[in-house]
Amino acid sequence: MRSISSPTRLTVAVDLAILTVIDGAMRVLLLRRPDDDVPGWAMPGGVVDAERGLDETVQQVLVAKTGVRDAHFEQLATYGAVNRDPRGRVISVAYLALCPHDRLEGAVAAGADQMLAHLHTTWPGEQGGPARLTDAAGQPLSMAFDHADILGDLVRRLRGKLDYSLIAFGLLHRRFTLRDVQTVHEAILGHPLAKPAFRRKLLSRGLLKATGDYAPAGAHRPAELYELLEEK
Amino acid sequence: MRSISSPTRLTVAVDLAILTVIDGAMRVLLLRRPDDDVPGWAMPGGVVDAERGLDETVQQVLVAKTGVRDAHFEQLATYGAVNRDPRGRVISVAYLALCPHDRLEGAVAAGADQMLAHLHTTWPGEQGGPARLTDAAGQPLSMAFDHADILGDLVRRLRGKLDYSLIAFGLLHRRFTLRDVQTVHEAILGHPLAKPAFRRKLLSRGLLKATGDYAPAGAHRPAELYELLEEK
DNA sequence: CCAAAAGTGTTGCCGTTACACCCATGT
DNA sequence: ACATGGGTGTAACGGCAACACTTTTGG
To answer: What pLDDT is stored for residue A122 in this prediction?
Structure first.
């Protein structure tokens, strides 16, 4: 029964997987806890207080940790195992937040206490298992709590939603080339895609609008810039 | 920040959408609160205490409300709007539990305080909006909290996972006919499916094993019984 | 003229759909 | 015999993958 008279009360936190794609690889913002109370790297998070909704708390953490205001985010799942936090019982609602890489690189500096870690997945498709995190040099990072498992779930969710939702576009700017979209898809799926097929499937979804402008290119033909056409 | 020293603590509950399919229609177990503190019908739920994990709490509620021990369940999403419960702040982790209809009909009796309500969805596919709940006579039920919204999300999730997961089989017995599976799919999707196509797609997934036994039938050819072949 | 990446056309395969048909059973 | 629902065959359609090809730029 849900008796409010003498309820058990628990600490509820949100944990954010702030994700981006840099040079065709997934990256996620990790922090090392300032007062080394729990060893290892962890996703940024914050406790949910009585006056704030979940989304509001997420927004607040996002701005505090990255300065980014308008990132797209969505809920992933909630983790409530009794011993997931060695310091005490914490129910954690995990969120995914997406951001183009330069927005993040401007706001967070890699250092001893924070970094944009590389997020690898050994398994293909939507199989199980935790994610593997490494630093810029490719050295494995030891993760606090169950955060490696959460990040594994995250990648599976991303892969599943990739081609029927708009998540991929959360990792891009307002205007982008078709190649940019393909790079993001390949980074998330972990394998290369055929260019003509990808192109046609993407355009056939009827989501994009050609702008007529072209991205400045190097020694090759410039690519046309597209936008999401927003239908309300 | 996640300070454990003086944390805000909140009431955390699990709410269960205990779902079944009866006569080709989705049904969900709803309760009317005994001490009419909140008007309307609600999903069964329970407060999460300090010693129990989320899944454990779900299992406990499930057995308490239905007597069913081995139902398949999975997490849906977490709802934490500040005013979703008029009595105070409650974070609610919604779960989906699946059960063959006769297991439920045996354990719960329709009455003034509990019923297997009809779950309708006006919208097709995976569009938005709350679910519509009615009683056996087709009269709309007024729902407590945000439970109509949660049940809307539930149906969308079910529809999305229907043909790449095993959820449909949670609504069936160990042995079933192909027609049974089709009925479940049609109930969830809300529209009829072509028999030959459904049959072939289902068998081509390579999940089923023909038993060689046949279901007792009426005035027509008996249908073969199939089982899930469990691959570990 | 060459390299590099954008972008298109063509072909063949394969899964799905629609429709017609056969099979087994009770009345 | 026939009504009823289980189960199968077949041909047309449409989407997708592979591959070869053309286009546009900088050097």
So the answer is: 81
